[in-house]
């Protein structure tokens, strides 16, 4: 039986341990776009992808939720399983296949911000600045190479070079498709540099990018002529661009705050969907395929306790319903799991420091 790579290479084992201790590794900050696209590719090929979700506190139905955020740990584990299954089914070029489907509209708010930018250069800068809200799992930078050349530079997170080919293929392919949509199909990079060996399907790269390709390069870069940056965009609308960028800034997490640890985000998702049923810690643990003790420990490691998360989710939902103004206080209490309106009023005042009616008047 094959032994895990970390056991064969002690230095890799140490690196894996260091990454696992990094809170950014389990911070739920990425939309699930890549996971959804891989699942759809599996459907097209008749591949059962249920095993890809094992141990990730996720299921297939959740991937279509625009509010879902996953951690790098969850996403990278899923992608590794997906790529292995797809390669076994004769699909080694999943990144290029997904990237070729890239459109400005598929980027949502960021696509709108890019499309209404003044120039292609401004659109490119916006795309780099807010790349994480589209599920990009690479670190991106903009680099001036020389007077006539600029580059989009991609770097793996957590030194994860194993997934670099897939992530780069998807990123550079979708970026090229979107750039052609914005400024014209004649756009071609000057050169694409890839920091990994030439794959067997390199001809597909040549067909897509229509430029020089360099595999085994020191870094991953997509280089274009500087003259493209000044190209005006036909959809320029300064007000729409400003509004879209403001919304992009709020989209890092659904509530606009800092990303939660993945276990906290998973518990919040389940609670939001089941508030009326007043789920207990054991219920949530069972749904996440954990023991109650394991869930309690994982939450403690993230500096949280179940009751505090439950109360905050209930308070947020109650405030939303109070601001909407269409339900009575008793009905809102029922929506967040209280059968007795008096218990809801007491709990709401404990959560927020004010009575529900006072919160409604303040919102009005």
TrEMBL record:
InterPro entries (UniProt xref): AraC-type_N (IPR032687), Homeodomain-like_sf (IPR009057), HTH_AraC (IPR018060), HTH_AraC-typ_CS (IPR018062)
Domain HTH araC/xylS-type positions: 265-362
Any single GO CC term annotated in Swiss-Prot or TrEMBL for this entry: cytosol
Keywords attached to this entry: DNA-binding, Transcription, Transcription regulation
Entry keyword annotation includes DNA-binding: yes
Keyword Cell cycle: no
MF term (GO), any: DNA-binding transcription factor activity
Record protein name field: AraC family transcriptional regulator
Phylogenetic lineage: Bacteria, Pseudomonadati, Pseudomonadota, Gammaproteobacteria, Lysobacterales
């Amino acid at each position: 039986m094959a032994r895990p790579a970390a056991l064969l290479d002690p230095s890799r084992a140490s690196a894996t341990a260091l990454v696992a201790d990094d809170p950014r590794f389990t911070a739920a900050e990425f939309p699930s776009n890549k996971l959804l696209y891989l699942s759809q590719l599996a459907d097209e090929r008749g591949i059962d992808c249920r095993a890809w979700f094992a141990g990730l506190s996720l299921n297939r139905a959740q991937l279509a939720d625009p509010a879902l955020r996953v951690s790098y740990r969850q996403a990278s584990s899923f992608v590794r399983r997906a790529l292995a299954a797809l390669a076994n089914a004769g699909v080694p070029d999943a990144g290029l296949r997904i990237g070729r489907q890239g459109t400005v509209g598929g980027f949502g708010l960021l696509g709108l911000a890019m499309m209404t930018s003044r120039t292609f250069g401004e659109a490119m800068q916006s795309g780099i600045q807010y790349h994480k809200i589209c599920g990009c799992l690479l670190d991106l930078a903009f680099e001036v190479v020389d007077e006539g050349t600029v580059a989009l530079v991609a770097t793996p997170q957590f030194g994860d070079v194993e997934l670099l080919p897939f992530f780069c293929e998807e990123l550079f392919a979708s970026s090229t498709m979107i750039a052609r949509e914005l400024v014209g199909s004649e756009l071609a990079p000057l050169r694409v540099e890839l920091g990994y060996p030439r794959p067997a399907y390199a001809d597909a790269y040549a067909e897509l990018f229509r430029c020089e390709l360099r595999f085994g390069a020191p870094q991953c870069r997509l280089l274009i002529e500087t003259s493209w940056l000044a190209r005006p965009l036909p959809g320029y609308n300064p007000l729409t661009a400003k509004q879209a960028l403001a919304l992009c800034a709020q989209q890092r997490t659904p509530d606009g705050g800092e990303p939660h640890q993945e276990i906290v985000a998973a518990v919040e998702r389940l609670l939001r969907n089941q508030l009326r049923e007043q789920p207990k810690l054991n219920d949530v643990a069972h749904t996440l395929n954990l023991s109650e003790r394991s869930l309690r420990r994982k939450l403690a490691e993230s500096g949280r306790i179940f009751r505090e998360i439950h109360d905050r989710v209930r308070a947020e939902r109650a405030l939303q319903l109070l601001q909407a103004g269409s339900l009575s206080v008793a009905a809102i209490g029922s929506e967040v799991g209280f059968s007795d309106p008096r218990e809801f009023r007491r709990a709401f005042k404990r959560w927020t420091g004010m009575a529900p009616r006072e919160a409604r008047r303040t919102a009005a």
